[in-house]
Structure formats: C-alpha cells, structure tokens
C-alpha cells in the first residue's frame, strides 16, 4: 500500500475515531456501588459495636467479613457483573481485592492446585501487595526518621 | 517461472477448487445473535461437558471436523490434509482437537486470519495437484482467549468501548478438486502491516491497515473493482475498524462502502449483547463464513465474495513489553460460477 499517512497521523486519526468511555456515567455508577459497599461495611460495624466489641476488634472482623463477601460473590459469578457495571466502585473497596485473588484462583484451577491455583492466585493482587508493602516500609522509615 | 502469479501478492488458480461443505458450531452468546439461524450447532454452555475451556475448544474443532466430513459424505481416509490453527499457545485447540483425526496435519497460526490463511494454503494445494480434499478449520473460545490474553473471567473489570468480544465457535470448510462450486479463484496473501497502534483493546484499529493493504493490493493485482463483488467481508475489524477500513480504501481510490461488511459486526447485536465494538477471534470469521456466507453462496443470493480474515499478531508478552500490534490480512476470492 502506498502509505497515505504516517504512523503518527494514523494514530491520531484512530484516536479521533475511537469513542471515549462514558466517564460521567461510569463515575456515577462507581460512586453509587462503591458507596453502597461502604454502607454495608458501616452497617456491619455498627451491629458489632452494638454487640459490645471494641473498635480494634470491630475493624478486623469487618475487614474479614467484607473479604469473605467479596470472595463469595466472586465464586457465585456475581462480582464480575457488578464490576462490569460499577468499574472502580467495586475494584477499590477491599471486596475488590478479594475478587482479584479469588478470580485467578478459580480460573487456573484447571492447571492443578500447585501450578494453577497456588502459583497464579496472585497474578493480579501480587503487584498491589509488592508495592503496597514496599510503600508502607518507606513510609515507616520516613516516620521513624521524622519522629 | 511461477505461471499462476498475478501482480505482487496474488495467485490465480487455474483449476479452481470447490468448497464442497462447511460446518459451524458456536457458543451460547453467538447462538443468540443475529446469525443464529445459520449455524449448524449451538452449544448450551461454554464448557460443553469438558473439564476445561481449552478442552471445550478442542471439542469444538473435533466436532466441526466430523460435521464437515459428514455433510460432504466423506470419511477421514479420503482427506489428504487438514490445515488448522487457533489462538491458544502452541495452537493446542487444533492439535488436541485433531489428535484422533488420522489425517496429515498442517498447523498454522495467523491469529484471527487463520481461516483465510488455511483456505489459501488448502486451495493452492488442491489447485497444484497435491491434494484432492483438504479440510481447513479453526476455532476460538471466549473463556480460553480471555484467560490467555486478558484477565480472569470472574475479575470485575470494565471494558473500554473499542474492546471486542472473542467469539466462541469453530468453523471449517472442505476444499475439493471435484465439485460444482463455490469456487476459490484468487488468493491474495497479506503482508505484515504495523501502523504503531499499541492498544490491545483497540484491535480493529490495529488490523484495519492490514485489511486495507490486502484489499487494495487485490484490486490492483487482479484488475477487479469493488463492482466485481457483491460482498467484501473482513474477519473481525469490529465497528471502529470497519469504518476506518472503508475510509482508507476510499482514499486509495476504491469505494467499497455499499458492499462491505465485517464478520465481527455481523455476528452480534452490539447494543443488546454488550459486545462493544463487536466480535473477534479466529472463530468469528470462520463461523460467519462457514455459516452465513457459505449458505448465501449456495442459495444464490451471493455470487462473488471477497473474504478477508484479519489477524492481530500480538502476544501478551509483546504487549507487556510495550510493542505495537503487527497485523496481517489474507484474502480469498470466491465465486459461484466460473464464467466471469
């Protein structure tokens, strides 16, 4: 083909041709679902507090319950639909973190429990853990030095 | 000298082989799409009774292969070659699906261009007198493709509007030296074209220049014009790639807008089925060809078809290393009568 445009020209032409994501709609959905997940968390928090648990215990238990719910909904094939609807609204809360670990575990079960589930479980959450933990160490050192 | 060559990239077959049967099996989503009535078999669930998606995809190939033979009333002993490939690493769907076929096997990889690639090779083998009956077959599977190229299925992510949906399905065709058409008359083999698109969620835009290159080269090599065809159809450019293709071909002096379509656009109802830009995968071009287009050729409502399957030659590794997406498109010219 005689090139009628350079690669650069083609790339900017493609950019014009490609529709953008519906940001307004996506943000609204993320806000609603993300908010709803937090309301559920708060609801469980309040119930546990009413039952007389202390703040520290409540924080741990609520986290565990939310992770369980995220994992359960992933296993029931519901969380991916929620994610398609809500985007960041269901990725950011801790339920999304559970989803990111359970979903590859389910996916790679066909390759066995060691090389499949075990090895692939953290393909998505792995980077979050690596950089999350690294950042917390750096923050800890800075805090130690400034204290 | 090669006497059958025409121009830079085209061959003209002197003993045009016939496509004497085709078969297509698709997944549940494709079975709810606008072309559902044209497929031979629609499976109810994506596992199809197997233990993994990869096994299910192999089964798609295996069953399509036997259906192609059955419809032509042939046994596997009569087949000289089976040419096949798919999207999975090392083409395992084809390798395992045809393991028991007992037919000489040529494995090919052209990503989603595999159907046209295998038909090109098959037709040349038959025309050259090296074979009488060749089966060309390919498949893709939404779940196994997502697993290999993107994210786990159950991960809650949103797709951008340019993303495409991998077709679950397998299509096959039997190309024979004997038969009364539809005939394969010309083959234009594409070059690898890369215009620097890096977004693996916008494959249509990455592949469109390859399709344009092959279509325009086909016209120049053969002297055909858009009017020579009543359907020019690409494999899986999707809605965005389709539009780009029409515009870029027009820039080169050919107007195909009225007779052009794309299998990826045809196979789904994009709005209702939430498939964004449309279908993709080897199975997209293969099932639409083996299902819809072949049946339209047989009932006479289509007479001259240029079938161009388009492939994005990327891998997850090349994408992660920041490479752009090289693409290729192969064209097969099909006619129902040889007096042109």
Automatic annotation (TrEMBL), chain A:
Bias kind Polar residues: ranges: 1-10
InterPro entries to which the protein is assigned, alphabetical: Spore_V_AC (IPR014203), SpoVA (IPR005562)
Record's keyword terms, sorted: Membrane, Transmembrane, Transmembrane helix
Chain segments annotated as transmembrane: 26-45, 57-78, 85-102, 122-146
Disordered: annotated span: 1-20
Family annotation (PANTHER family): STAGE V SPORULATION PROTEIN AC, STAGE V SPORULATION PROTEIN AC-RELATED
Protein name per the record: Stage V sporulation protein AC
Source species of the chain: Acetivibrio mesophilus
Gene: spoVAC
TrEMBL record, chain B:
Superkingdom: Bacteria
InterPro entries from the UniProt entry: SpoVAD, SpoVAD_sf, Thiolase-like
GO terms, molecular function: acyltransferase activity
One family name in Pfam for this protein: SpoVAD
Signal peptide: none
Gene3D superfamilies: Stage V sporulation protein AD
NCBIfam families: PRK08304.1, spore_V_AD
Name recorded for this polypeptide: Stage V sporulation protein AD
Natural source organism: Acetivibrio mesophilus
Designated gene of the protein: spoVAD
């Amino acid at each position: 083909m005689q090139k009628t445009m350079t690669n650069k020209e083609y790339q900017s032409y493609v950019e014009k041709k490609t529709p953008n994501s519906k940001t307004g709609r996506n943000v609204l959905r993320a806000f609603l679902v993300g908010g709803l997940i937090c309301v559920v968390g708060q609801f469980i928090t309040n119930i546990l507090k009413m039952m007389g648990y202390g703040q520290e215990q409540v924080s741990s238990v609520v986290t565990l319950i939310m992770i369980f719910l995220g994992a359960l909904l992933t296993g029931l094939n519901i969380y991916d639909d929620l994610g398609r609807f809500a985007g960041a609204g269901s990725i950011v809360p801790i339920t999304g973190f559970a989803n990111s670990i359970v979903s590859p575990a389910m996916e790679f079960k066909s390759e066995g429990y060691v090389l499949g589930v075990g090895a692939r479980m953290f393909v998505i959450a792995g980077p979050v853990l690596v950089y999350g933990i690294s950042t917390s160490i750096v923050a800890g050192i800075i805090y130690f030095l400034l204290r | 000298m090669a006497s059958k060559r025409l121009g830079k990239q085209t061959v003209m077959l002197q003993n045009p082989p016939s496509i004497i049967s085709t078969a297509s099996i698709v997944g549940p989503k494709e079975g709810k799409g606008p072309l559902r009535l044209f497929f031979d078999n629609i499976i109810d669930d994506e596992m199809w009774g197997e233990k993994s998606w990869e096994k299910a995809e192999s089964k798609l190939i295996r069953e399509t292969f036997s259906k192609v033979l059955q419809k032509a009333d042939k046994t596997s002993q009569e087949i000289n070659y089976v040419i096949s490939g798919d999207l999975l690493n090392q083409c395992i769907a084809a390798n395992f699906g045809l393991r028991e076929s007992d037919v000489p096997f040529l494995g090919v990889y052209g990503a989603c261009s595999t159907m046209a690639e295998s038909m090109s090779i098959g037709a040349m083998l038959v025309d050259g007198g090296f074979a009488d009956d060749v089966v060309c077959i390919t498949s893709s599977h939404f779940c196994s493709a997502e697993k290999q190229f993107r994210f786990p299925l159950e991960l809650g992510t949103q797709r951008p509007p340019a993303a495409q949906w991998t077709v679950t399905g397998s299509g096959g065709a039997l190309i024979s030296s004997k038969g009364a058409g539809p005939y394969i008359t010309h083959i234009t083999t594409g070059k690898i074209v890369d215009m620097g698109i890096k977004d693996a969620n916008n494959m249509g835009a990455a592949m469109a220049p390859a399709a344009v290159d092959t279509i325009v080269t086909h016209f120049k090599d053969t002297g055909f014009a858009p009017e020579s065809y009543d359907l020019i159809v690409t494999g899986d450019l999707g809605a965005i790639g389709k539009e780009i293709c029409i515009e870029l071909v027009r820039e080169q002096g050919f107007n195909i807008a009225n007779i052009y379509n794309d299998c990826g656009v045809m196979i789904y109802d994009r709005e209702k089925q939430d498939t964004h830009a449309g279908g993709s995968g080897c199975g997209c071009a293969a099932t639409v060809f083996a299902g819809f287009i072949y049946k339209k050729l047989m009932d006479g409502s289509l007479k001259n078809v240029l079938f161009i399957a388009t492939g994005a030659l990327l891998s997850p590794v090349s994408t992660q290393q920041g490479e752009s997406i090289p693409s290729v498109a192969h064209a097969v010219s099909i006619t129902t009568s040889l007096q042109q």
